[in-house]
Amino acid sequence: MSQVLDTPPPTAPAASPAAPAAVGATPAEADRAGTDLAALAVRHGLTVSGARPTLPEYIRGLWARRHFIGAFSTAKLTAQYSQAKLGQVWQVMTPLLNAAVYYFVFGVLLQTKRGVPDYIPFLVTGVFIWTFTQTSILAGTRAISGNLGLVRALHFPRAALPISFCLQQLQQLLFSMAALVVILLAFGVPPALSWVLAIPALVLQFTFNAGISMIMARIGARTPDIAQLMPFVLRTWMYVSGVMWSIDHLVSAHGGLPSWVGTALQANPAAIYIDLMRFALIDSFHASQLPPHVWAIATGWALFAGVGGFIYFWKAEETYGRG
Question: Which of 46, 107, 226, 274 could link 41 by a cystine bridge, Cβ 3.0 to 4.6 Å?
């Protein structure tokens, strides 16, 4: 009996260095265990799931998926009117019908066409170019919140979504441009070498649209209700962008306006890209008459929105699809 009572209790097995700290461990022991686990993860190439990559890695990953971006945007464009009997014809008919409504309301009833040469080409160009910006931003606002299943199921740079939606709208604009060329020719606007300037103008506008879309995609991912507000914001923006009327004529007709109002209207990025396209395509708006600083402002807006929007979106990469 005395031998049993005097027998020392069995010694507990030593904990593995990589095992988590036991309950009641001191802070120093817990830190040491965490360090051991971190070293083990690094040794085996393990990383945090969903962690934000560095900016160069993010750009490389986005470039590697450029084929997915193109295919995704084309598929979305094809499916957009798949349920309509006229199908893809609506890609051209929708902006044309909008232009017809604006012509009746503003050109006929409000007489905004007075003093504006080639008003119908002027109006249709403005509607088409504005629609490109409007639809890109609206689609970008829902790029994350409207595709949560895709975001949560697959690992890819999330910026691919707003960029692909902008590319979809660019493809739709190119269909509309074919109709615009027919309208220009029908109203006596001859082809000119200045039409080539439409290409860099569209590149700058696409860069600007993509940047704003990425900004709105991040905001929309956190606050989905912003998508309900955006149509009102964009409609107000359209009315101050000279889509249906000439900003120059408005400023000259209202000489009592503060000088900053005219400057703000003319520096409006939507108005800048519309003016670039009008001066490139319409003979009565000679490209040589376009002040050189307009191209500089257009480039500045594109770089500011494109680069700034991309970085702003990337900073929240690890938060998309969570919560």
Answer: 46
